[in-house]
Design goal:
mainly alpha; 6 helices; 68% helix
């Protein structure tokens, strides 16, 4: 069973999937029998499902962060919010 279901390790939202991917690569025949590095084995297509899961996790985090408006006093979002607050208070 993947570790990210058991408990959430520290280090971010995708840390559990990343840890599982590393463990998968270290247990692979590519590393153990062929003596290649985990990075080489990943490039050769080992642990594809976990690689894809990690990619999707990182991508979803990036998309989530891009959807959050940054509070900049010059931005339209900030000016609109402040205008609405001033109108509501009066």
């Amino acid at each position: 069973m993947p570790r990210y279901y058991e408990d959430k390790p520290e280090g971010g939202a995708c840390a559990g999937v990343k840890e599982d991917l590393g463990a998968c690569l270290l247990r692979s025949d590519c590393v153990l029998k062929e003596g290649k590095s985990p990075r080489q084995c990943l490039k050769e297509g080992n642990c594809k499902a976990l690689k894809y899961s990690f990619f999707e996790c990182k991508r979803s985090m990036e998309l989530h962060c891009k959807s959050l408006p940054f509070v900049d006093r010059r931005s339209q979002v900030y000016r609109t919010f402040m205008t609405q607050e001033a109108t509501r208070r009066t």
